[in-house]
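User: Modeling request: complex.
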Amino acid sequence: MADAILLTSGASLNAEERGRLASAYPSLHVDGPDAMAGLDPAARDGIRAIAFKGHAQMSGAEMDLFPNLGVIANYGVGYDAIDVAAATERGVKVTNTPNVLNDDVADLAVAMLIAQCRTMRNGEAHVRSGAWAREGEIPLNRKVTGNTAGIVGLGRIGREIADRLAAFKMDIHYHARSEKPTPGWTYHDDVVALAEAVDFLFVALVGGPATEGYVSRAAIEALGPRGVLINISRGTTVDEGALLDALEQGKIAGAGLDVFLNEPDIDPRFLALDNVVLQPHQGSGSVETRRAMAVLQLDNIRAFLDGRELLTPVN
Amino acid sequence: MADAILLTSGASLNAEERGRLASAYPSLHVDGPDAMAGLDPAARDGIRAIAFKGHAQMSGAEMDLFPNLGVIANYGVGYDAIDVAAATERGVKVTNTPNVLNDDVADLAVAMLIAQCRTMRNGEAHVRSGAWAREGEIPLNRKVTGNTAGIVGLGRIGREIADRLAAFKMDIHYHARSEKPTPGWTYHDDVVALAEAVDFLFVALVGGPATEGYVSRAAIEALGPRGVLINISRGTTVDEGALLDALEQGKIAGAGLDVFLNEPDIDPRFLALDNVVLQPHQGSGSVETRRAMAVLQLDNIRAFLDGRELLTPVN
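Assistant: Request completed. Predicted assembly structure:
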């Protein structure tokens, strides 16, 4: 096989994405890291780049299957499925696809908040079932504009969310590792203090071990009975058991969730709840954005194989 | 009966709203204009103000039932149910409740757009039915940020919508009776030309005979197969038959509708459509906003009965 073989990994690369990669470089495809050991050793020797997609873990053991591996190009901004420390030890570069998905994720975050506060799911069901004509109006619900919003993790996506919320006349508060230059937003050095100060809490942290359960039971309960939590980051960043308890017991008003532990086999306790908006981790799921992500993934691989500087390196 | 009797009209005034009015002034309650003729003539003589709510027509004939009527205070910004010309002829003042509901209506408009483009109804069903775990991801959908938006009717609500959309990095176009001072938004003197120029068309017209079918079949078709129409004004402002045809035939991509002809007995053709977000005319339906509307309605009545200037007169 040729020198620069590319392995496309992850079951969820779609036909267009596979086609774009395969037409650029000779490529092999496997359904995720578990299938890598089953490849012929000679084929493995040829692999210099991995186009990675999905949430199955890619650890040092899988990297060691490819003696000539130079780059793992992740599809997505979150690369918590890849053991970056193990990659760095082995001299393997990791790239991701930041920025191109910020808008989509922020759009969905804002819409989940409004859908939850304005009971849009109930509204839609009320129209479609004919209950509107039979029973009259739906119960009054909750105003969105003018409340106070908190952002946990003021990275690129957090800022996009905050910029949109500012147009809804919200005071913006945030928590991050350090205070940042912002247009008058209020910094809190503690996530519990942030939750206490706001009506709506948006979780926009990176995933991975460092942020596991970062939005703690104490933070969730500090939001209070009028509080709404929106998570578009990773299921791991929030204490999910505490969140379910709070939602079931009315300790907070509601939630909008695009991410969960053990996706897509999510905790069935969520399905019994009426005070949540549930989305299937589709934050970046527009045609336009997924195409931009696939192109950036491929451009990182091209840059590596051409010996140029990587566009969006992680390590 | 006392001199300043108030008649609360409209079946949909809730207990809190009735209570607020009744504790302020001696009051009678009837379920809408049809029931007015059934009141005792002596009681009718005492009526000086009508607190009006609902969409049943209040014409000159009903006004003539109340020889001492001075003001009809409408609950809502849209007063197309009230024959204002007939009121003016009779020296009867009409008031409405503008501004206090702008935020809620604009919030819902934006959320309907995102929900439609990002297929949030399908996303929610996918999670709740377990299809996510069984079948994988939902189909990719449509990016919202960065498109071009058009506003038909750049009044107070239209401006609130445009201000929010600007935070989603949209170019704003609009059509109104005349060009207005705006932050760089593009004016079109024709609604068809506006529809041709934009991806998303928001209808924020006042209701009434002057705007009946204003968003015409030609305008709807000019939006094109990628176009999305959002209506938060009145069902009358859009040629609804043409809209249904366009949605059924894929001449436009979708719609988000909070208002319909013949609410709540809406055309069943809507219920067969998957490319629409349907809400039960709940644009102003938050607890906070409805309370503000009821207070402003009562404050207009107070001002009239005290001989002070009306807060938000229509005629």
